[in-house]
Amino acid sequence: MNQEKQPKAITTRQLIFYIIASILVAGFFLFLSIPFGMFIILSTDAIKSLIEGIATMLGFFGLIAVYLLTSYDNRIDRLEEKIQDLEDPAKVERFKQIQNKIKIRKKNNTISIIAALGSLVVSFFLSLWILSILDVNPSNPTVTALQYAFIGTIFASTLLFIGVSSIFILIYRIGKEPDEFYFYPKK
């Protein structure tokens, strides 16, 4: 019997890679900001742009997540209808195997969706918190406010990068669905 490999949830090694890559990307942007003033990335306009970017990514992510989960639900429902209509026990068993594979993929992708959503939501609220710190005294922020905002911006950028890379992983997974999930054997 041909066993299809199921996509695995993100491993610890991959998560560590994403975190390190995110910190490097955030550090790169920090390095680029040095000629313009070390804390230019902490301006309220830059934080507002970060918040808008995160909100846009949340909307885009929502569309992909809804499509993916609805697609799995529709396939599971169609298979259930076919299983009820079939009389051949071998075909019924084959459809049930396909249905179980789809359920496993849906579960794995749901975990990935929750992790990506959590990353983007935490990044969004962290950015709002940074904006509130910097808006207390926008013309002359305190050193403590700048330190908190700087650290928060690094974490928010890191979480945003993790969320965006998770979106691309989900899009890649959509394209790697086995053909048997779409084309069912005839009755």
Global mean pLDDT = 79
The structural class is: mainly alpha
Q: Give the low-confidence spans.
A: none
Strand content: under 5%
Number of discrete helical segments: 4
Q: Write down the domain tally.
A: 1
Give the H and E element order.
Answer: HHHH
Number of strands: 0
Describe this structure in words.
With 187 residues, this protein is mostly helical. It has one domain. The chain is built from 4 helices and no strands. Helix 1 packs across helix 4. The longest helix has 47 residues.
Topology, element by element:
Blueprint: H1 12-33, H2 44-85, H3 89-135, H4 143-175
Helix pairs in contact: 1-4, 2-3, 2-4, 3-4
Structure, briefly:
It contains four helices and no strands.
Features:
single chain, 187 residues, mainly alpha, 77% helix
